[in-house]
Amino acid sequence: MPEGLALALQTEGLVLLLLVLLLAGLVYGFAGFGAALIFIPLASIFVPPQLAVGIMAVSALGSTVTVLPRAWRQADRARVLWMLVPAFLTLVPGIWLLRSMEVLPLRWLISGLILLSLAAMTLGWRRSMAPNRAALAAVGGAAGFIGGLTGLTGPVVILFNLSGDEPVVITRANTLCFLTLLGVLMIPQLAAQGVITGPVLWQGLLATPVYMVGTAIGQAVFNPAYQSVYRLLGYGVIAGAVLVGLPLWD
Using alpha carbons only, what angle is made at residue 182 by residues 55 and 5, rounded to the nearest 5 degrees? Predict the structure, then answer.
């Protein structure tokens, strides 16, 4: 047995980590967002946030099979790419800060960002800027930096997309495509900066089929007519995850 796999199997709370990832994938499949918002705070109970980010990035490869093909056909692909390129560039400083921060302050930062994002989403925040190329690039760049620092690639883009007046199907597809592709692009950068090591890679690979099952089920039950219900359910699960994952309970 490879040494990295042996170490991965010895991870404390591995079964719970996999169950959390299954839940995160399910919400991502039907709501179109929320996987990292659920997994990162809960996984950080068992492993340092840096490792949780690495595991999430590797396991999210499954979304390229279960979620991306359908979303790519429905998305405004030019808009996705205008956000994706600057996001890829700003991942670098974000990941550097991720590596540099102590565990406890990082966990509080992650929890605070999720709570602020959730409050903005539930209160119906609306953007004031038009979705032109400059705005898309700025949103993408901010998402990449925050995603590199915390693993939360979604909040900035989710708020930007959900607060517009575009059709629900296109908004959801844009979000899914951006988050899935940025998650894939994070992997080589995380590896280059030493966040993804052998054991983390194996942990992510072990989790990938679990995440794929969750996203596939969520994708299968999605019905645009009930988008508001899925969104509210996603908000509820995210709120529960961040409250349980607060360092306050350690």
Answer: 20
Contact predicate 72/177, CB 8 Å: yes
The number of beta carbons lying within 10 Å of the beta carbon of residue 179 is 28
Strands (E), the chain: none
The Cβ-side half-sphere exposure at 220, using a 13 Å CA radius, reads 8
pLDDT tens digits, residue range 126-142? 665 567 888 899 999 99
DSSP 243: H
Question: Alpha-carbon distance 2 to 8, whole Å?
Answer: 10
Say how far apart CA 2 and CA 52 lie, in whole Å. Answer: 21
* pTM, full prediction: 0.88
pLDDT tens for each residue of 154-190: 888 888 877 666 777 888 899 889 999 999 999 999 9
User: In the structure encoding, which two tokens stand for residue 149, read together?
Assistant: 């620092």
